[in-house]
Structures are given as structure tokens and as C-alpha cells.
Design goal:
Enolase-like, domain 1, seven-stranded mixed β-sheet, 3 domains, FAD/NAD(P)-binding domain, about 475 residues, binds 1,4-dihydronicotinamide adenine dinucleotide, 14 helices, binds flavin-adenine dinucleotide, 22 strands, alpha/beta
């Protein structure tokens, strides 16, 4: 007999596993199919984010930041430590333990919520119009099983974009998985792509003592960020951390031999250059993953970028099939995947109950971005350059961390907060931050934007003293020309 479910979720990353939990909470009989296999060949729920993305990268960022502080920042506190060293295998084992704790935690959450978990590849087979259900084949280690479900949520995520002339072996030439598993600090590390992964992973290994060179194809550094934030980041990363970042680079060839990797490229001036490194990380973006899903045979529409086409409610062109997370358009971020997963689960539950109300839509402009470098970078809403290009009149309030007591006490004074508000209505249009713990401060900005706040609203809220949040407060005051401490 074929096992039958209300909802089948394909993929157990932050899009899929969160959608599955919400479906189960709402009383839907749910199965989640995931094919992820860890280094030991075992199922490991949580997708890219938990296994080789958000969580392990932040663990290494924290370890390396502690090492950097010990070597370079503790002296000013009067703390002297001689002969500090880093035991990379211990650091990696700590990271691995965090990963297994969290991936195991999802298994427990599935059990608690009575979600059926299947380890294997899910493929859409066909839709039975009469029964209004989908047949899905699950290719498991133990054999093939076919199940059926009334609704399908596809959350198959993304995989690293490959450059045809750069063969990833995860020994010398690494993608994000290899970059998180090095067992010693390379003396010379090359990174192709000054995007989010390149900057985070480059920071980790530079702080631990590697000499890191990042080669970026675009002429501008961090183009997605506010230009002023990007300029400040470039300055701090180059001067304080010592990262070498080269833009407008055209990679010509990559060759690896026993002693390392040789990269030939044209630099910004058009001159031929050679860079020799011990290891090379390639981080040139990620692509939606629809591999083996059976998209073609069931007629699932895929766009020019390889993403599954969806409407504003994440409905695909097929009946009762939804798609969320990295596999659809928009930001490739874990929190976007999860929030949309929840929205789709709630919509399916409402449909099942015959509820025809308007469903929640996710506003792409209130999805926060964070880059976990030091200083951290975070933003929500529109950048100043976007506002200019759209011809929107705006006002700016900006306040530096150097003028904030808490930042001084912590000893992290680089950066600033910038509030952009509509020139007439004062409604906040974007908030951009670079500085200590801005990954935490950004939530206040997101809340303000979700509630359609004005900069005056933030300016009138009492912020604890001394706290880093006062920098946002002062920037909001600044948007109305009434900053107090500058
Ligand atoms: P994924 O997490 O990719 O999960 C998809 C799952 O589906 C996988 O387990 C895959 O094996 C499975 N699957 C695929 N096809 C099938 C199939 N046919 N059948 C069964 N299973 C299938 N985002 C942040 O917000 N913050 C961060 O700090 C952050 N750091 C990152 C660091 C790195 C190094 C990387 C690589 C990414 C990072 N991201 C971060 C991005 C984040 O990981 C992704 O946006 C997020 O994982 C997307 O979630 P998802 O559920 O769409 O897909
Ligand atoms: P990315 O899109 O952030 O950056 C890729 C960079 O590579 C770009 O700057 C691009 O111009 C450059 N590039 C492309 N081709 C190149 C070439 N041939 N030569 C040199 N440079 C080239 O992609 P990345 O860093 O791979 O990360 C993928 C995604 O994962 C991110 O966009 C983000 O969505 C997610 N992520 C999020 C994190 C976070 O939220 N903190 C952390 C890490 C990843």
C-alpha cells in the first residue's frame, strides 16, 4: 500500500524543515524527504545552512575572532598572553560538534512533531487529477519507495556555482564545504569572489595567520551593500585585518600541482599577474538546485537562472506544488527560506480548511542581510544608491561607533549606522550598519520597517545606556538634524 500524506516536503534545509514543522503544528500529516549525507555517510537534517553553511561558518568565525583578539586586541586591556597558538583540529572538531548537535536537534523536533522523515532523493512522478494528489518517488539507500501527498513543498536549496576551468577537489581547490574543513592554517590562501562566503571564510583564515588574497571580478567591492558601508568595509578589512582584496580581476587559468595552486589573471590595469597559493577557495555564487526533481517530466517551470518559477505566494505552475528558499527567486538566505516556508505551510492549512482569506506575502525589502565579518555588516531596505537611481527624495542620519561609550568599552569603534528616511513622510526606507554586533542591532531596524516606522519613531524610543543600540538611536535623531552626541 502506498503511504499517503497531506503534505510532502522535499528538502530539509531551513526552508523545508521549518515548513514541515509548521505543517505538523497545524495538524497536517507531513513527510519530509531529504537526501543530505554527512562525511560519515549518514542522514543529516538541516541542509546547507546547518551542515556546511550558516552554522559551521559562524563557529569558525567566532574561534578565529577570539584568536585574533587574543593576539592583537587584548594588549590594550593590559592582558598579556605569550605564545598563543591555534589547534586547528580542535577548532574544527568544536565546529563539527555544534553541527551534529543542531542536525540531531532537528531529528528530535521531527519526532516531537510526528513528522515522517525519509532519507533519500525525492522525485515528482505524476499528478492524479481525480484524487488530487501527487506521486513522489523516494530513492533511498534501502530501495525505492513511492508515496503520495495532496500538497508538495519543494525546498531543494542551492549548490555552489562552478567555473568550468576550476575543478573543485576539496583538497587544494575548495568550495564552501572544503573551506570549513581545513586541518591546518594555509600559509598562503587565495579566494575567488569577494562575496559573502569569500569575505567570511577569508576573514577566518586571515585571522588565524594565513596570508589571504581575494580576487573579485566586479569593479566595485560589495556592490549589493550601501556604497559608504562598502567603502568603510574595504578600508577596515585591508588596513586592520590585512586582507588583500583586488577588484576588476579577470581570471585566466588555474593550475594545481603538488606544492599549491597557480592562478593567472589580468588585474584592474590589464596587466598579466600570477598568484601562487597553498589553497584556493572558490566562492562565486550559488545556483538553485533542481537536480533529479523530475521537473521536466512533470512540466515544472524553471526560469533562466535555473530557479523554480513561483508567484507572490510561492505557488509554482503545477497544482498544489509550492517552492521556497534558495531554489526560488530572491535572496539566498536561511531566514528568508524559513519565513516563506512558514507562510506556505499556513496557506496550505488554510486551503485545507476552506479558508479563502488573503495570505501573507514576504516583503523582500524587510529581509535583513548580515555579513559576519569583523566589523559586521548588516542592512535592511534600500541603499542610498538605489534611492538615488529611483529618484526618491530622502534624508540621511548617520552616527559613528567611535562616539559611543559601549563601543569604546568593548574596543570596537570602527563603523557607523546610517538611517535613510523619506524626505517628506520621514518613513524609514533603509538602515545600513557596519560595526560591532550589528547582526543583533539590525533586528530593531527590521521591526521599525515592518511597522512602517518613521525615523522620528526610533528617535523617540528610549535606548539603554550605555549600549550599542544608542548608535541607531543617534542616527535616527540625526535624520532630523538633532543628534546629541556629535
Ligand atoms: P538548503 O539549506 O540548501 O537545503 C536543501 C536540502 O534539500 C538539502 O539538504 C539537500 O540535500 C536537499 N535536497 C535537494 N534536492 C533533493 C531531492 N531531490 N530530494 C531530497 N532532498 C533534496 N544564510 C543566512 O541567512 N545566514 C548565514 O549566515 C549564512 N551563511 C552561509 C554560509 C555558507 C558557507 C553558505 C554556503 C551559505 C550560507 N547561508 C547563510 C545561506 C543558507 O545556507 C541558505 O540560504 C539556506 O540554507 C537555504 O535553505 P533551503 O532550505 O532553501 O536549502
Ligand atoms: P556572492 O554572490 O555573495 O558572491 C560571489 C562573488 O563572486 C561576487 O562578488 C561575484 O562578482 C564574484 N565572482 C563571480 N564570478 C567571478 C569570477 N569568475 N572571478 C572572480 N570573481 C567572481 O556568492 P557567495 O559568496 O558564493 O555566497 C553565495 C550565497 O550564499 C550568498 O549570496 C548568500 O546568499 C549566501 N551566504 C550568506 C551568508 C550570510 O548571510 N552571512 C554567508 C555566506 C553565504
Amino acid at each position: 500500500m502506498i503511504n499517503s500524506f497531506d503534505v510532502a516536503v522535499i528538502g530539509a534545509g531551513p526552508g523545508g524543515y521549518v515548513a514541515a514543522i509548521r505543517c505538523a503544528q497545524l495538524g497536517l500529516n507531513t513527510v519530509c524527504i531529504d537526501e543530505w549525507q554527512n562525511a560519515k555517510g549518514r542522514a543529516s537534517l538541516g541542509g546547507t545552512c546547518l551542515n556546511v553553511g550558516c552554522i559551521p561558518s559562524k563557529a569558525l568565525l567566532e574561534s578565529s575572532e577570539n584568536f585574533f583578539r587574543l593576539n592583537h586586541k587584548f594588549k590594550t586591556h593590559g592582558i598579556k598572553v605569550d605564545g598563543a597558538s591555534i589547534d586547528v583540529p580542535v577548532m574544527i572538531a568544536r565546529k563539527d560538534k555544534i553541527v551534529t548537535t543542531f542536525t540531531g536537534g532537528i531529528t528530535a523536533l521531527f519526532r516531537k512533531n510526528k513528522i515522517n522523515s525519509m532519507h533519500g532523493k525525492g522525485t515528482l512522478l505524476k499528478h492524479d487529477k481525480e484524487q488530487k494528489s501527487w506521486q513522489i518517488e523516494v530513492n533511498k539507500k534501502t530501495g525505492v519507495e513511492t508515496i503520495q501527498a495532496k500538497h508538495v513543498i519543494i525546498a531543494t536549496g542551492s549548490t555552489p556555482r562552478q567555473l568550468s576551468f576550476i575543478p573543485i577537489d576539496n583538497k587544494q581547490i575548495l568550495d564552501n564545504t572544503g573551506a570549513l574543513a581545513l586541518t591546518e592554517v594555509p600559509k598562503r590562501l587565495g579566494v575567488i569572489g569577494a562575496g559573502v562566503i569569500g569575505l567570511e571564510m577569508g576573514s577566518v583564515w586571515q585571522r588565524l595567520g594565513a596570508e589571504v588574497t581575494i580576487l573579485e571580478a566586479m569593479p566595485e567591492f560589495l556592490m549589493a551593500a550601501d556604497t559608504q558601508v562598502a567603502k568603510e568595509a574595504y578600508k577596515v578589512f585591508s588596513k586592520e585585518l590585512g586582507l588583500s582584496i583586488q577588484t576588476s580581476v579577470d581570471i585566466k587559468s588555474i593550475k594545481s600541482n603538488e606544492s599549491g595552486v597557480v592562478i593567472t589573471f589580468k588585474d584592474a590595469a590589464g596587466d598579466d599577474k600570477t598568484l601562487e597559493v597553498d589553497k584556493l577557495i572558490v566562492a562565486v555564487g550559488r545556483l538553485p538546485n533542481t537536480d533529479g526533481l523530475g521537473a521536466q517530466q512533470v512540466g515544472l517551470k524553471i526560469d533562466g537562472r535555473g530557479a523554480i518559477e513561483v508567484d507572490e505566494h510561492c505557488r509554482t505552475n503545477l497544482p498544489d506544488v509550492y517552492a521556497v528558499g534558495d531554489v526560488v527567486r530572491g535572496a539566498m538566505l536561511a531566514h528568508k527560506a524559513s519565513e516563506v516556508g512558514v507562510a506556505v505551510a499556513e496557506m496550505i492549512s488554510a486551503i485545507e480548511k476552506g479558508d479563502k482569506r488573503e495570505f501573507k506575502q514576504i516583503d523582500p525589502y524587510t529581509i535583513p542581510w548580515v555579513i559576519y565579518t569583523s566589523p559586521e555588516i548588516a542592512w535592511v531596505g534600500k541603499t542610498e544608491q538605489t534611492l538615488k537611481s529611483l529618484g526618491i527624495s530622502y534624508k540621511v542620519g548617520q552616527f559613528p561607533f567611535i562616539a559611543n561609550g559601549r563601543a569604546r568599552a568593548i574596543g570596537e569603534t570602527s563603523g557607523f549606522v546610517k538611517v535613510l528616511a523619506d524626505a517628506t513622510s520621514d518613513r524609514i526606507l533603509g538602515i545600513h550598519m557596519i560595526g560591532p554586533y550589528v547582526s543583533e542591532l539590525i533586528s530593531e531596524a527590521v521591526m521599525a520597517m515592518e511597522f512602517a516606522a518613521s525615523s522620528e519613531d526610533i528617535a523617540r524610543i528610549i535606548h539603554a545606556h550605555p549600549s550599542l543600540s544608542e548608535v541607531l538611536h543617534e542616527a535616527a535623531l540625526g535624520a532630523n538634524n538633532r543628534a546629541l552626541h556629535i
